[in-house]
Amino acid sequence: METYENNSVNEPENGNPKKNASPKGSSFLLYLHDIIYLLAVIVVLLLVFFRIVVVSGSSMKGTLVDGDYLLLVSNVLYRDPKQGDIVVISKDSFDNGAPIVKRVIATEGQVVDIDFSRGIVYVGDSLDDLKPLDEPYLSTPTTTQEGIQFPLTVKDGCIFVMGDNREGSKDSRDPVIGQIDNREVLGKVIFLLFPGTDKGHQSPDYSRIGAVS
Questions:
Q1: pTM of the model
Q2: Is there a contact between 57 and 38 (Cβ–Cβ < 8 Å)?
Q3: CB 108 within 8 A of CB 158
Q4: Which member of 29, 72, 110, 148 lies 3.0 to 4.6 Å from 51 by CB, making a disulfide possible if both were Cys?
Q5: Tell me: the pLDDT tens digits for 136-181?
């Protein structure tokens, strides 16, 4: 007795089995769909975790110039500012909350004092622990007093910031800005994407592209 496997095929009139061919171009459309989906995910991640800002002004001159394009780690990830970090902040009391770039000089609980006659900034964990801050990034010494009285202790959940161009920076020395609540920090600058021209006063220096510190 002969037996047969129960495999069925559709046989057209000419006797050749039909093949279930994919519609022409469907593979390309699926590939394109995957690419678009991947790009959308990347864009969302960039928008949530990173930001791009452009420097406006000269308060960080010596480190950054007007027109520099900067990449930030946003405050979604950056929640613990450290002394020396370059951050972008938004203070409603200054320039209607427009983003400004400054350097973290001291964090919560630290004491800040400034000898304006000598242009030296002191930071410590207490008045008895004050030490001159090593600031190789400065373009000018700190000789301008803007209204805040020193020494001061940085409040809980706040930071004290200044620009690297001390004689051309509105910062935590000014009562209009004062200490910065950590919630007012938009992110930390990590990379210079494209160099600015300082309002046309210099040609772009592409050697500056890279990590910012």
A1: 0.80
A2: no
A3: yes
A4: 72
A5: 999 789 999 999 999 999 999 999 999 999 999 999 999 999 999 9
Nearest to 121 by CA among 135, 102, 140: 135
CA separation for the pair 103, 26 (Å, rounded): 53
CB 189 within 8 A of CB 164: no
Q: What is the DSSP string of 59-71?
A: TTTTT--TT-EEE
Tokens of 146: 């803007």
| Tokens matching residue 159 | 């930071």
User: Hey, where are the domains in the chain?
Assistant: 52-201
* CATH T-level fold of 52-201: Umud Fragment, subunit A (2.10.109)
What span, in angstroms and rounded, lies between the C-alpha atoms of 200 and 47?
A: 30
